[in-house]
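Study this pair:
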Amino acid sequence: MGVSHYREHTLNVIIAGGGRVGRETATLMTAYGHRVTIIEQDPRITRVHSGRREDVTFVQGDATEAETLTSVNIRDADVFLALTDDETTNVAICQQAANFAPDARCVARSHRPPAATGNPDGVEAFVFPERAGARVAVGRVFGAPVQPITDLSTRFELVEIEAKPGAPAVGRSLEELDLPTKATVITDLGTEDLADGDMVIEAGRQYMIATRPDAVDDLKELFWE
């Protein structure tokens, strides 16, 4: 995923939840040139971190309340992320935000796979697993071709990629496929079958892959282009 994918336009980003994931997501978003406001209910967290950050606006309040959302100009939001540690609260926040900014992309943090959430109204994408970090949240916002799932270490990451119709990988087995040496297919996320040399890549299916970051562009060429 090239950084340019995240810099195409300056966005107005609102994040509900000023915990670690929310703050780190804000750091990435500001690094990509976007404007960020964080809503945090805990006055101590708001006070401490607003004094440390000049590039992020902190607002103390309850993001489930309409008054709080209007105070941060929710109608002007391009992106809204609900990143508190409670899934039910995150869904409720997104649904409330959607009432004010129906065109904003809403992303919620979840402790369940997206398929188990019931596709609630107002939520366009989920950050899962719940322990997933800021890079995952940013990937969900921009709908990048290769989606990070979680960082395994400083050298590897776990990503999710969909095989597009007509892509070079489609119709070929993993044994036949010239995968980058720094990447390994782990499973088909639909069937949850562990990958082996006989697994055939099918269009429209999503695959979990362990990869070095510098192999991501090669994966995009195989599965996406």
Observations:
- The mean pLDDT is 83.
- The chain has two domains: 9-143, 157-223.
- The longest helix spans residues 87-100.
